[in-house]
Amino acid sequence: MKVVVVGGGFGGARVAKSLQGRCDVTLVDTKPCFEYTPALPELIVNPGKEIQIPHREYLTEGRLVVGRARVFHDHVRMNGERLDFDALVVATGAGPKRGGMAVKCREDVWKLVEELGEEVAVAGGGYVGVEVAAGLAEIGKKVRLIHSRERLLHTLPERASGLAERFLRAQGVEVVLGERADVKRCVSCTGTVPNTACIKGRLRKALDEKGFVRVDGHLRVRGFENIFAVGDVTDIREDKSAQNAFLHASVASRNILALERRAPPREYRSRERATLVSLGSKNGIFAYRGLAFGGRIPAVMKKAVEWKVRLALRG
């Protein structure tokens, strides 16, 4: 069975690794490596941290094609080559909204730290904004964090918001709530948009009004039996997290194999999951449902999660 996976982030890399050896797998990505993006803000404090794993290190029985793809409902066009498939997985993820200085890869962080002055404004008080502000404060920058909501980490319990705000203020960060920032003058951490510009033809009808890929309960792209989508690019209303992308990949991989056997597909069940937020290099916040606590233990937990992901790809 020929399977083409477009996107080598958490979801795509996991699908490709799971199906290699059982299917004829081709992984298509814009770069030759997997990048552990949740650790990007950590590079502010520790620029030498290694967050990349070459795709070839885990994709030992599949094909890797590096470049920008055009994805159609019946084939993928890549570097002038037509890639046909029996099953397709769209795992192109999401990127930062345009405007200002955005952090989307390792080189962006290095450039950010090199070019910023001593006073820095950060727009957005979600997970990434809080982590970036904490990292910049740790290396001695005077930080102003501007968030349009009435509390930081507004999707988490109020206790988590309070923990983040108190920590940042203690580090000298000026926290401004309930105001919108001029993103062009800030480090932009105001959310993401789906990477679906590569989707062409009939397949574009599967996109919602915001550009996310509409999927059914089995992670099949709506209107197509043999096309799946995983990770941040999907329209599933849940946290756009590495944890969820890995779970999507597990379900999609099983359903591709079920498709080949003509077996019933497995359903993906979205639910609330624990969240870990870094506060610099040594502190963090753990939040799950109504529970939240801060300190060094969440920081250690987040490093353990990173180790687990690396092991899952390399093991």
Could you tell me the radius of gyration in angstroms?
20 Å
Question: Given the helix and strand composition, which structural class is it?
Answer: alpha/beta
- The whole-number mean of residue pLDDT values reads 94
Tell me which oligomeric state these chains represent: single chain
Strand count, sense and barrel status of the largest sheet are: 5 strands, parallel
Characterize the structure shown:
The protein has seven helices and 20 strands. The two termini are 24 Å apart. It has a five-stranded parallel beta sheet with strand order 5-2-1-9-17, covered by helices on one side. A five-stranded parallel beta sheet has the order 11-15-12-13-14, covered by helices on one side. Strands 6-7-8 form a three-stranded antiparallel beta sheet, with no helix packed on it. It folds into two domains: 2-96 and 192-261, FAD/NAD(P)-binding domain; 101-190 and 274-314, 3-Layer(bba) Sandwich (FAD/NAD(P)-binding domain), CATH 3.50.50.60. It has helices at residues 10-19, 55-58, 106-115, 127-138, 158-170, 242-261, 296-314, and strands spanning 2-6, 24-29, 33-35, 52-54, 63-66, 69-71, 75-78, 81-84, 87-90, 94-96, 101-102, 119-123, 142-147, 174-177, 187-188, 192-194, 227-229, 275-279, 283-288, 291-295. By secondary structure, the chain is of the alpha/beta class. A hairpin with a 3-residue loop joins strand 18 and strand 19.
